[in-house]
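User: Assemble these into one structure.

Assistant: Restating your components, then the assembled model:
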Amino acid sequence: MTVGAPVSIAVIDYGAGNLRSIRRALEAAGAQVTVTSDPMVVHRADAVVFPGVGAAGAAMDRLRQLGLVTTIGEVVAKDRPFLGICLGMQLLFDHQEEGNTRGLGLLQGRVHALSATVKVPQIGWNRARWLQNAAGYNEAEEEDFYFVHSYVIEPDDLADVVAVTRYGEVFPSVVRHNQVWGTQFHPEKSGPAGLRLIAGWVDGVRASAATTRERVPA
Amino acid sequence: MKGLAPSVAAGLPETGPYRRIIPCLDVTDGRVVKGIEFLALRDAGDPVEMAAFYDREGADELVFLDITASSDSRRTMIEVVERTADQVFIPLTVGGGVRAVADIRELLGAGADKVSINTAAITDPGLIAAGAEVFGRQCIVVAIDARYEPERRGWGVYTHGGRRASGLDAVTWAAEAARRGAGELLLTSMDRDGTRDGYDLALLEAVAASVTIPVIASGGAGTLDHLVAGLQPGRADAVLAASIFHFGEYRVDEARAHLAQHGIPVRRPVS
């Protein structure tokens, strides 16, 4: 059993917004958390969380300045679990409608603005329905989460869509491709429902870290 | 999304994000001005304990307003926000004495998700855009204290805790604040504040019609029907309330059930 084994998670800090909540939520799930902008620390962690706030262009510029774009590509290539939250999820994709910025290109697909027929940004709680078992939830389960966003993602591969939500249109609220994960909502701001998702994801990290350690004996 | 079978979303809410219930705590020097009076909390004057209580009760968000906003009080507030963020995992807005981008950064770094800017948004309107550019507009709540002025046939905006008339028209200012980058408006009717006579619905409608960003209604909630009235289409997206919850008259879950009975989309009860 790997339950309870310590896992280290690097939370990427690029200088904007509240990182305390995600840190505490990951710690509540039993992870050892470092909030960092140091590529070496990100390299050493068992998993990486990329919380995004602010504008896409500014966030990408900052990541580039910090040398983190390359680092993120490397850890993802090694199949380390990587979770992008909100803007952090949108930046997983290459094509960003916002300001014609290019994202990280870790997932195939596009990002587009929410329809002008609804109030934008969407701010508040909305429901997500799971389409497959993942991140602590089972297929067909529904729960309410806290969203703050003006853009939504459109992955090329429908198999990557873990959960969907409706606001003006139906959009993916959780995605996953191998070990690259994204949530459009803020699990760290979604009360018990969000803490359950984080705990489920950290369990996956624990399993993945244990596998890696078995392959590479110390 | 193209490609997804329509059936995958069948039955999901179509009304957009749920309307929100937001308890508000007035804080001075790290203490709640009116603590919860009906519960045996270890320390009913501790904003952190009250925040944790409302989180358990299923509040959708929380607001802390520092009503003294002296520099000493602000430092105490930072520590309160940190302790709150360590145990409360719902969105937290903090306001009072926010004057500069550095103040915003400090509060967000402590664990606030949004800051509410009132007087400084008027004396230095560039602060709205500056804050939105660095942190995203979703972090920037512009608080508007409005009072009816018969000569204006409308509402004037007041600053400095409601003591000073700014000369601005509330509806015009709301639209300008939104244009400058506010993510939400926290709209308080000074005429109704403390009366428990209900929100100023005419004010809500006038402001909601002038912006596309969410409006939070504040000032006057005395019954659960007042919350229902404030959340009708064309009015507010969220309701702020203090005394009806602090005095234990109504619980947050009860308020949510009442809204649901009246057809207002709300979050599921927290199990």
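Chain B has a mean pLDDT of 91.
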